Every structure is written in C-alpha cells, then in structure tokens.
Amino acid sequence: MMLSAVGRRERSGSHMVFGMLVAIIAIAVIAEAAAPAPPVQDGLKYPPAHKGGQVDDYHGVKIADPYRWLENTDAPESREWIEAQNRVTADFLAGVPERRLIREQLTRLWDYEKVGLPTKKAGKYFLFRNTGLKNQSVLYVADRLTSPPRVLLDPNTMSTDGTVAVNQVAISPNAKLLAYAIAEAGSDWIRWQVRDVITGKDLLDTVRWSKASGASWTNDCGGFFYSRYAEPKAGEALLSRNQGHMLYYHKLGTPQEQDVLIFERKDQPEWYIHG
Q: Quick one: average pLDDT of 151-163?
C-alpha cells in the first residue's frame, strides 16, 4: 500500500510539473504573438514592388498572384527591382564598421598555399594548386616527377571577376588530351571543352547542356561519354525543371548535334545517368 501511495504521489507531482511547463510555454507563445514587430532599421528604404492584376481561376476558385511579374527574372522591371534590392543590401553592409576587420582577418587566414592530390596518367602528373588567394585553383602538369610543372589550365584567366570555375576534368588514357567542364557564376550547367596537353591549346569541340556529369574517354582517345539534359527553351536555362538525364557520346572533331544518345530512362525522369 505504501508503494502504491508513493507511486500515486510521484505521478501526481509529475503531472503538476508538466502542467506548469505547458502553461509557461503557452504564456510565452501568446506574449510573443502579441509583442509588436521589431522596428525597421533606420535609413533602410526598400524599393516598392508593385502589385499586378494576375488572377488565376482554379476550378472556380480565384487566386490572386500580384507578384507573378517577378517570375520573369530577365524582364527590365524585374532587373530594376532586383538591382535596387541589391543596392540596399550593399549600402547597409558598406556601413558596418567591423566589415573591414573581418575581411582583413579572413584574408590572412585564407592566404596559404593549397595543393590538391596529384593524378598520374601515362607517365605524366597532373595536380591543382593555389598559391593562396586566387579565386580558382590552377591545373598544372609535369612530364616527370623531377621536371618543373607547367600551367595547363588557369580558370582565373577566363573571367575578370573570378566567377568561372573548372567543375570537372578528365584526362585521356594517353595523357595527350584534357576534357574539362566550365561552370559560370555558380551555375550547375557545365560546358565541356577539350585541351591539347602538349600545346595547351583548345580544340574546336564544345559540348553544352551538361549537368551532374563527368567525362569518360574511350580507350582509343577518340571521344568521351558525358551526361546531359535536353536543351532548355530560350530564357529558361536557369528556371526550368531538369528531367530526363541522358548519357551521350561525343566524337572528337564533330559538332555536338552529331553526338550519339547511348542510354536514357524515360520511365525514370528523375534519375541521374552516368557512364
């Protein structure tokens, strides 16, 4: 009987504590909901976004979508609104007194040499290296371990603002050719080019609309397999949904229009296809 009574008292005490916690949380939620919104930072004047008259009728139910016009990111009025928003942000950040100190500290921390893992192919050695503060690492090649490496591919020369990056590289089995994928401004779309390792010059081959892809050379070095999507409609490259990943083969010296479709899964449009 004593054990049973003790158990009842413990359960009763637990219920009281739980009830008090629920009451405290409820009061906090109500107080937060009733509290006035924090004031907007003095001096920040956000550009107005006008409301359009777009109304969609879904089975008799009309739904207003006044900001539909902003979905066209390349329209002049959209670009004007986006740039005005960016100016608000840039002006505010420029006035933060700690920003200069943070930039200086980060610069000191990042200013050290970075060397990637070397790859050996047909007696040659390939590696990425960054002397410290370059926006993009540089690909070097050496004919042997004892010879000094030379620059094979420097993405920093491909744009003035350092936003062009080498996304993937694939060295041919004879180490005479380099297939490399370029990504611009952080886009997931990549463009494949082919560079002669000896001369450092690019061939005429260009492969577009590739994404989530590497390159796999054939043993005769006559071409490579890659993955791609169908070419999007004009103006929708960064907006449209990607479905239907496909594996293609590109033969060197031929235009992309002649590339051969190797494999696809139309019944699985969300799958990635790799060679």
A: 95
